[in-house]
């Protein structure tokens, strides 16, 4: 599928010049999906703390966060351009700027490409070339592999496409050390296995939206029991992956990993049991808990590294 070069006609923005300016800025910010960016940045800082084994330089953290935010915004804006035709068919995305005709597709495309270029240049000059290269790879993977290749072709789209969302921890680690150490790969794996349960819980809620848009998300092509069975399976692998960080962390992280993992597994199993029993249940509860779980886990990583207690092993 090629990137669209045309789209809905831009809607005229009424009101005073200041109001029009605010509306335009808001529309471009909407392309970047700022709420998702916040979550990506939440995992970057703990990765930098663990790489430093303490508090990294504040300037380096801020530079990495800014570069990472621009990279994520670039990927999201380009994703909006590529998905403009299906966003108008889904209630969840119908209010996005391109679906509403608030931004011309060509302008959104240029906006996304410029942000990607700026993020790479910024990270190259303020951190290192490895971090900059990884940011470019993340953008390319999200747009070319997930959005254009996988999303409309396979129910495994979010499994493999979710790898792009794992890159912030690797970029953060590389910004501190100039390398990619094995703990960074473990954190990558944790987010990789976290993504399917997280997103499939959301997709269960919006199954009809994805079906109407012709996107074969797993809940569209498989029954609820099969979906929740896979959610449970991925949750177990994810929790197992979190334990691989125990050799470089103390009891602080261990408590969060074991306790939080048990809580998330219990939630996943309860969802599956409810679906199998035919009880009415909201998958969004698991979706929101997955956000809380990941945030709590990575906060524990940051606190553990900042406190500097001896590792368990």
Gross morphology: globular
User: How many DSSP E strands?
Assistant: 0
Order of helices and strands: HHHHHHHHHHHHHH
Sheet with most strands = none
CATH topology: Farnesyl Diphosphate Synthase
For the terminal residues, how far apart are their CA atoms?
A: 50 Å
**From the coordinates shown, what is the CATH architecture?**
Orthogonal Bundle
The radius of gyration computed from the alpha-carbon positions, rounded to a whole number of angstroms, is 20 Å
What does this 3D model show about the protein?
This protein is mostly helical and 313 residues long. The chain has one domain (22-307): Farnesyl Diphosphate Synthase (Orthogonal Bundle). Helix content is 73%, strand content 0%. It contains 14 helices and no strands. It has helices spanning 17-31, 34-52, 58-82, 84-87, 105-126, 129-150, 157-161, 167-177, 182-205, 207-213, 218-221, 224-242, 251-276, 284-307. The radius of gyration is 20 Å and the shape is globular. 44% of the residues are buried.
Keyword list:
313 residues, mainly alpha, Farnesyl Diphosphate Synthase, 0% strand, globular
Question: Can you give me a brief rundown of this structure?
Answer:
With 313 residues, this protein is mainly α.
């Amino acid at each position: 599928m090629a990137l669209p070069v045309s789209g809905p006609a831009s809607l005229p923005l009424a009101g005073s010049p200041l109001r029009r300016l605010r509306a335009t800025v808001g529309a471009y910010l909407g392309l970047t999906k700022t709420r998702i960016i916040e979550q990506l940045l939440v995992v970057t800082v703990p990765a930098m703390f663990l790489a430093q084994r303490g508090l990294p330089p504040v300037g380096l953290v801020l530079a990495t966060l800014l570069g990472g935010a621009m990279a994520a915004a670039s990927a999201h804006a380009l994703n909006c351009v590529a998905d403009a035709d299906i966003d108008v068919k889904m209630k969840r995305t119908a209010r996005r700027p391109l679906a509403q005709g608030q931004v011309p597709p060509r302008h959104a495309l240029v906006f996304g490409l410029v942000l990607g270029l700026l993020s790479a240049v910024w990270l190259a000059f303020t951190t290192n070339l490895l971090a900059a290269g990884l940011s470019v790879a993340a953008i390319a993977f999200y747009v070319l592999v997930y959005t254009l290749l996988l999303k409309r072709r396979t129910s495994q789209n979010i499994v493999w496409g979710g790898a792009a969302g794992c890159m912030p921890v690797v970029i953060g680690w590389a910004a501190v050390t100039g390398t990619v150490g094995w703990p960074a790969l473990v954190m990558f794996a944790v987010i990789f296995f976290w993504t399917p349960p997280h997103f499939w819980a959301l997709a269960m809620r919006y199954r009809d939206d994805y079906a109407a848009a012709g996107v074969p998300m797993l809940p569209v092509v498989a029954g609820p029991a099969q979906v929740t069975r896979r959610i449970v399976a991925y949750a177990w692998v994810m929790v197992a992956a979190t334990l691989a960080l125990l050799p470089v962390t103390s009891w602080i992280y261990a408590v969060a990993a074991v306790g939080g993992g048990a809580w998330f597994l219990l939630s996943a199993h309860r969802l599956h049991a409810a679906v199998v029993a035919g009880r009415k249940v909201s998958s969004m509860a698991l979706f929101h808990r997955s956000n809380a779980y990941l945030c709590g886990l990575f906060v524990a990583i940051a606190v553990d590294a900042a406190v500097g207690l001896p590792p368990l092993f």
